[in-house]
Design brief:
Number of strands: 10
Radius of gyration: 40 Å
Length: 487
Amino acid sequence: MRTLSNTYGTLSVWFCLSIFSLHTFKVAKGNTDTTRHLSIKEVIDMVHNNHPLVVSSRMESARGKATLRKSRGAFDPKFQIETYDKNQGGTNYYLNEQAKLSLPTRSPIEFETGYESGRGNFVNGEHYTLNGGLRYAGVSIPVLKGLITDERRTTLAQSKLFKNQSIEIQKIELLNLSEMVWKDYVLWFIAFQQRNAYATGAQLSLERQQALRELFKAGGCNGMDTLENYIQLELFRTREKEWRVNTTKQRLQLSRHLWSYNDDTNKWLALSISDETQPSEDFFNYLDSLFLSNKPTAIDVSIIPDINSLNFSVEQQRLNYKLKKWNLLPTFDLKYQQLFGNTFQDYALGSDRRFGLNFSTPLFLRKERGEMKIAEIKWQQESLKFQFKQNETKLKLAALYQQGEIYKDVYEHLKNVENGYLKLFKLERNKFDSGDGTVFLLNTRENRYLNARVKTIEQKSKYLNTLIDYLRATGSLSKIIFGADGL
C-alpha cells in the first residue's frame, strides 16, 4: 500500500513539475516576442548623444579657450583720446588734447606713440605745445621688477596651461559619468538576476507544494514534508519581493542618465525605463576584453587625465611662485620718447626728447616676501599631491588588476559549483520521480543550487565592478562611450 501511495505521489509531483516546465517554456517563448531588452550599449549611445552632463563637460574646453583669449587681451593695443579745456569770463584758460596708442609686446618692452596739444593763456608749461601740436614715439622698459616676468605674461602662461588642463578636466568629468552609468547598469542587471533566481525557486517550490498537498491528501506523505516545503516557499517569496523592489529602484536610478532634448521647447526631458524593460549582458564581453588589453605594466600613468590635470596645476603654481619671487626686486622703469614737430620728419634726434625713470621699493618687503612664501608653499603642496597621486595610481592599478583576475577565477569556480548543484538537483528530482528520493533531500538540493546561483551572481557583480574601477583608474572607461580620445 505504501508503495502504491509513493508511486501515486511521485507521479503527482512529476506531473506538476512537467506542467511548470511547460509553463515556463511558454512564458519564455512569449517574452522573446514581447519583452524589451535594454543593453548597456544602447544606454551608452543615449548618454553620448543626449546627456546634459556631456554637454556641460564639453563647455569646459570652451571655458579654457575663453580664459586664454581673456589673458591675451592684456597685450592688445590700446588707443586713448582725452580732451579738457576751461573758459571763464571770456578767457580761454587752457585747452589740452591728447591721443595715445600703446603697443604692449610679449617681452617687457612697451611701445607708444601719440599726439599732444596744449594751448591757452594759463596752460601748464608741462603741457604747452606750439600751434601745430606735438607728436611723439617712444618705448618703456622695466630694468628690474618685470624684466623676466610680470603679471600679464604669467597670467598668459597660466591660461595656456589651463586651456590644456580644461581638456583633462573634461575627460575626468566624462570618466566619472561613465563610471556612474556602468555601475548603475550593473546594479540593475544584478538585481534583476537575483530577482529571477528567487522567482525560479519560488515557482519550483510552489509547484511542489501543490503536488505535496495532493500527495498528502492521498496519504503518500506526512505533514512535515508539506510544512518544510511551505517554509522554503515563503522564504523564496520574501527574497523575490525584496529583489523585485531593489530591481525597480536600480532601474529608476539608471533612468537618471537617460535624457532627450526637445528642439521645440529648448528643454531637456528626463526619460524613464519602463517596468517591462529588462537588462542584458550583451556588451559585457567588451568590458572584459578592454580590461585584459590594458595591463598595468603597459600603462603610462602620466597621461591619465587625473594625473595630467594635477601636473598642469603644479606648473601653474610654479609660474606663480616665479612671479612672486621676481616681485621682490625694486621697480626701476626707464622711459624714452622722441619728440616731433608738425610731422614725424620734423625732429632733432637727441635734443627733442622726453626721458624719465621711476624707482620705488618697499623698505621691508613684508608683503612681497609673504606672497612669495605662500606661493612657494602652494607649489610644494601641489607637487607633493602630484607625486602621491602618481604612486597611489600605480599601486591601485596593480591591485585592481590582480583583484579582477582573482574575481574572474572565483566566478568561474562558483559557476562550476552552481552547475554541479544544478545537476545534483536534476538527478535528485529524477530519483524522486522514480520513487527512491525524499522531499527533504530534494528541497535541500534545490536550496543549495539556488544559494550557489545567488553566490555566482554576487561574484559576477564584484567582478564587473572591479573591471569598472580599474578602467576608470586607467582613464580608458570613457572611451567606450566617447571614442578613442574619451571626449
